[in-house]
Design brief:
Chains A, B, C, D: It comes from Evansella alkalicola. 4 copies of one chain form a homotetramer. Helices cover 26% and strands 27% of the residues of chain A. Chain A is α/β, with parallel strands linked by helices.
């Protein structure tokens, strides 16, 4: 039993930069109806500000093409048919693109290396002038279509994880810096107030950050923000033909890394630059079943609670299992990154985000298992979690909270996910893991993806309320304490005991 | 512990005449958006065939009007603007009107007596010729608009509860028979295959049935079906300015009455006539809180299970709390008849109907607490209930079922309402009974109106499955046993124990 | 042929106070789906800021009720079930109520006089203390539900046309002033920044304005704005059992009246008060067929063009034929006020408003037949009209415009309503005036309610463009001149003459 | 002036097999929202029974995959994630797949030849056993998901245009027959009543038909229907980097071909086989601007009118410009096959289909410019057209029809497309051919894509009605003659002349 006594005075502001940005499968997927349906669900409930994904310049969207004229000469052709449709969709859903320039259009590629089942080309341009022209054409078109005022709000990030050979040929740092500088200049040449940044590296290569900022300083390359990714998974323990298993580090690891990098930036020539984590998750594998579990939610709860101390934003990778990096999904649950599984089924981590979205901006208390906040209307909203990476049953934790509440009568609403609730992955296992479930099975999975919801009526005492909670293995709960304005006395002569089977309250 | 062993062979067919018809507030309310929204919810989930309500000829719909000509003479005018809009809505929602002729248009009324806060006039026509013309005009218009083939499926019922003085002036039986005969002839004169019936009496006056059929026989009045109402409530114990409390009879009372009346019809000159219960519920009061409770669902479960043995249909009164017989509803919960409360919140009895809608057509077993059915695909669907009219806690019942299942692996899905689940009335009490809840409160009430849903994976043994259930006070549950086609073995090398915190199943 | 040469420089700002407010049938109708459907159409296309109608306190919404206690005493009960639903709908559609307090709840009425087929009681309160309490309860509830910041934007107008005996018993001016003062104080006692005004008189009684403002000055009654109505119809020439025919005054009459009243206010003790026309139309009769005609649009075009010079707003009466002042509508077209006829069919005057909604805020030229504006993007938008009150055919007018355009290539789009286009009333006559049209007929009427649309490609010359228009009888047209960015040259080798039957452009 | 006198007696039945089937871009595109939006528009208005497209087995849908096991062995994996989503969509929209087996999954391909920008592999399987297994797996899965009763209605066609080298390696006939037989047997081995056919050839190779049927006879290959394509375009006259221009043959050419092939089948060992044209259009190029023109509609009108005499169905290629055979569309109008252009804009040919959808089943008269039909309710529906392949203006045709009508008062509704109406391609040219139009431009194009609609009131004389029409260049019109039930006399005292500016009718 852990006892926590919470003061009336807020200890800090709780910022909502956990919802600044969300990751997506390659942008070309945004033409699909199921993708749009999922994004709509997310936006109506949580409403992220930005969305970031690969593939803006990939050949399925087809922006870069070349036309051969009668005289045999070739001229570039910029085709915005699909990207306009995609960004129009984003605008309608109230989410802005966090632009990532990449990967290389086939016609501009210097060689054949590709990444992912969808063959994103990861090589430098074969002609940097054409690349410069492409960047200018693209950015100019966005301004023409959406207006300068709008596009000034779009960050432009150059490439993705150039420190890894599978994302950038030979992980050639000098070549990346070259690409960066030319791209950044191309953007700024369109309008000097546009925001550009990098180096979008993966974890494990933070010397790139220092080198990158030094490069920008020395070579006068424009830079408006720094970006990096973070994942908590160790190397694969086992890879089957369709699944990948990994261990996870402790969930403080990511926080430590953020702090370290933030300090690196502070010590750089650009100490005031914003720092964005443009991808994070437990595992970096799109076929790791951990993403489908309550553990994933319980693991990341502390990240949502604390990462905002160090970074300007951190972007969960990704909102939906509409995703193809390792081929078309082969089953209803397949370890995808998504907050929403195929067929519109909420995963546990979806609810983690939905719960955090109900928190207030005054932080009353924070520790490794909870975050207690107050909302503008004086009501209290608490996130609670119990990460258990050990196997087996049990592991309940008990808490007793002594809270300040500014009202007498309290309506308590608790929403819970854990191993037994809002765990459609488990129900799906009970069903025999149907790869392609029929409508009835999908309907059941949707039903079972809802949190357990409990309510109660409580009374505070001298402005204090004592609450006890038992938190089960990998539970994440949202508890809301809402003022009650009791109107019972306005029902003259009301008496529930006159109803058969009921008693006076 | 009650043990039930169920045979492979079906004991009977289970008919779905419990969903033949549903009651509605006066038809004029069907212009309202909230009414239509509720009906749409009901139709998408349950899909009743017919809908019956008062007020077809009431002045708010305004079918009967008179125009004064320049020479001072007066001619009838039939205005179908609103009734067309209403019936168009019904047709779009796939539900047909079960027509009730009434009440009296003011201009045709012989005196001023009215019923309900909306002042339905309950007096005989001041001119039976004009009444005959009105009936003909109305029926002819329906045929013109919807086609003869369609309207031949609409039953035409004459008036409502003429045996009660508040619904028919002086409860004058002879006058009713006169009205009946003229109306029936007016209908048949439009087309002889149209279906007409009565006498639409309340309970407690079953001699009217005999008298009515004798009258039809003796006076050659056309009659195609017999109608009656049934309610299980005793006289009011207490009436406050906005609520009415009553005791309920045993829930076999209604079944006994049905049997008796069916036998009366069998013994009449028209032994083969269909018999429709065109209204029923626990209480006949639209402000009795019992309608909002789980008790109401548990009470009526047996009715849904067994009443179809005696009658051709029985029509729950009513689908929605959009209803005005005792004035505009004064609070979110106010004891209304509706399956759906204001603001689109499901009441417990809604789920009773929704659960029955999942039952199969083969009845394997039936008793006072359950109905076990098999569906076409071989799956089993069981309704369970535990009516407790005593006050206080406890009263759980335990059952052990030994069932035939034609498959090895079983997915069990159980959906439950009881005092603690899908009881938004109780949550509303915790909130302080807000009369006019805000959007946040409505959202919580909607969330809390969902059944508890539990799933499990079971294995049958030699074609038999043993299940144990504990049923709480006023619980109604639907249990589905669905064949599993286990695909786990198609996932090569799958091993959940490689996920942190999980074990091999 | 009239020649108009238009200068580059704007002569004035064109204000959009013609869309500040729109009238509605009594608020109780806002529960109906068809009403809401029409309002949604209007808001999506035109988007009015406010909506004003009668009946806030009428008994169908039922705000004021009384409960009789066991001891026989009576207490007021304020029922917000319906008004909350109505105002929630308005808020969702982005339109605010322009509150009109009235008519008198039956239980507060001092006698039986009523107006309209829906029996609005037009008598003073039987108890001014109860009235004061009612106003306070209502306003306080709005603030509780929608927030103070929101409700501070809602004007509160006291009563409707108290200068007419059918709207206020005996048209008793002193009694109205009493009502006004008590109501205004009740509102201000809730919050002093709430806005209250009157006297909401009809035309023809403008001495009330002076008397009203003198009263406010002398009696220290709060007043924040002045309101009045205006209609252009003379007395009825003929009234049939369902239609009313009237002559119309010249369409400058209303403008003259506005100017006169504005000067009266200027000369009053409150010279700076806003002045709102809270109702206007051609005819004040809800069964005058003129409302269904193109004439109605052509007549009011000049009003929309010029009335904003004199008043802060003017509110067209009303947006929809969902309306019941003279009983349920008896036919598809019946002379109703609505911009939208039953079954969602646009009337000509709807398009007048839709056309004005496309005008720019720079007024380049205005006369009795046109209004030429420039929009922010430099494009030109022109409204043209040709009011013809004479019978017969012909009456075309020709115009030649010489316009400044800041671009070379011009895309012209002209949308036209006249006797032969967007005149569903005429098509309905061709159909034989079906009172209750079937779905196919409604579909045709909807099709035929669309404007004639014509486009062309033009070229300007030295920043000037010459255009000729022929305007038919009762035509209203919107002409838009939009800059063209010609991309034809980017299609290498394009040659339409290679398509069978086509030529090079 | 051509005079046509039409008899009361129908000369034939007019069949609606023109709407039996419609073509689509490759099935993988059916995941896209815009594709689904267009199909929904089509189905709501016209409602085709079947839809046929390429790419069922292409790697973007990804049905055929292989998994490598730990021991290095490989096993096939059938992934139905995407095809289930696609066919679920079709089922929801009420359209069934007309299955085309093809193209070859990369892992089953015997070499690298591909077709289209999306690289459909056109080579025989590298292993016919694996192909047989794939076909069985696919068909079995469809039955499992949609039920046998449903899938028995789906035709299974083997491959596409194997007589062309770009669609089938070397256009190897013997290899195709081998593929056909094995595929047909695989289908029949799943269920003998499933329907299978071929050879899906292009025009110009009709000896394949004879050879194919002889093969089936000699080799006992199952065959249930014969399929072929037809296009009316000659070789390209000019090909630009994004457009292709061709001449068209006379529009009787296709009818002649159909007759010839039907006679070939009649003379074959399978004289009773159904004959389906599974693709047709004017041009076979997806970048021929003719598809965007009114000419395309006028050209095909006679095909829709007469082709059903010879074939069981003919399937327009294709419903939508959501299509990628020659890369992502590069402009709003680009010569695509679609009835609906990008952004949901109707092309003229859309209206041709929509007009034919209003025709009756009794054919009263047919010639090269018109088709006169009677509908079940006695109303008359006439399609008229005036194909003009010459350049320039003029070319009007005049017709005088003398028609039988079974009613006195006639409401005439005429809907027209021609060079000046419902020609958004022309408006787009006026706009400067914007490749990626903004929302305002799209809205205007949608407005301008509506037919001209005209109405009139006529009176027949002794059961006959004389009508004159002038038909402009490339006009297609639908004329409907609908009985009027005139209700004017029910409006007592109605007199339009009492409305300012109007006269008594």
């Amino acid at each position: 039993m852990e006892k926590v006594t919470i003061l009336q005075q807020a200890e800090a502001a709780f910022r909502d930069n956990w919802k600044f940005c969300i990751g997506t499968g390659r942008l070309g997927l945004a033409l699909q109806k199921e993708y749009i349906d999922h994004l709509k669900l997310i936006q109506e409930d949580i409403h992220f500000d930005y969305i970031r994904g690969h593939g803006l310049l990939h050949d399925d969207i087809g922006i870069y093409r070349e036309l051969t004229l009668e005289d045999g000469s070739v001229q570039p052709f910029y085709n915005f048919t699909y990207i306009d449709r995609i960004f129009d969709t984003y605008m309608e859903l109230g989410i802005r693109p966090f632009i990532e320039f990449g990967f290389m259009p086939r016609l501009l590629a210097s060689s054949d290396e590709t990444v992912f089942s969808w063959n994103g080309n990861v090589t430098p341009p074969n002609d940097y002038d054409k690349w410069y022209d492409l960047i200018q054409a693209v950015v100019s078109h966005f301004i023409e279509r959406y207006g300068l005022e709008e596009v000034l709000k779009w960050p432009f990030e150059v490439w993705n994880e150039p420190n890894l050979t599978n994302f950038w040929k030979d992980a050639d740092k000098e070549e990346y810096f070259k690409l960066y500088k030319i791209t950044a200049i191309a953007v700024k040449d369109v309008h000097p107030d546009l925001q550009v940044g990098g180096p979008a590296i993966s974890g494990g290569a933070d010397h790139w950050i220092k080198d990158f900022l030094d490069f920008c300083e020395n070579e006068s390359a424009p830079v408006d923000f720094v970006t990096r990714h973070m994942y908590a998974s160790n190397k694969a323990k086992k890879v089957t033909p369709e699944l990948c298993y990994q261990d996870l580090f402790e969930n403080t690891m990511m926080l430590d890394e953020l702090k370290t990098v933030r300090e690196m930036i502070n010590a750089s020539p650009f100490p005031d630059l914003p720092f964005h984590i443009t991808e994070y998750n437990t595992s970096y594998s799109p076929i790791n079943p951990v993403h489908d579990t309550p553990l994933n939610a319980a693991y990341l709860a502390r990240t949502l609670s604390e990462a905002g101390d160090y970074v300007d934003s951190f972007s969960y990778w990704t909102f939906s299992d509409v995703f193809e990096e390792t081929d078309v999904p082969k089953a209803q649950f397949h370890g995808g990154f998504g907050l929403i599984a195929l067929n519109g089924i909420y995963k546990p981590t979806y609810h983690l985000f939905s719960f955090f979205n109900k928190l207030g901006s005054e932080q009353l208390h924070r520790d490794e298992n909870m975050l207690v906040t107050r909302r503008e209307d004086g009501s209290i909203a608490i996130a609670l979690w119990n990460l258990v990476m050990d196997k087996g049953e049990g592991f309940e934790k008990e808490f007793e909270l002594d809270l300040p509440v500014q009202f007498k009568d309290v309506f308590l609403k608790r929403q819970t996910i854990d191993e037994d609730h809002a765990n459609p992955w488990n129900v799906w296992k009970q069903m025999g893991r149907p790869r392609f479930p029929d409508k009835t099975q999908v309907a059941t999975l949707k039903d079972m993806a809802q949190p357990l919801r409990r309510t109660a009526r409580l009374a505070s005492n001298n402005g204090r309320l004592k609450l006890s909670f038992t938190i089960t293995k990998n539970e994440v709960s949202l508890v809301e304490l809402i003022p009650v304005k009791d109107e019972t006395s306005t029902y003259i002569g009301i008496d529930d005991s006159l109803i058969p089977s009921y008693s006076r309250d």
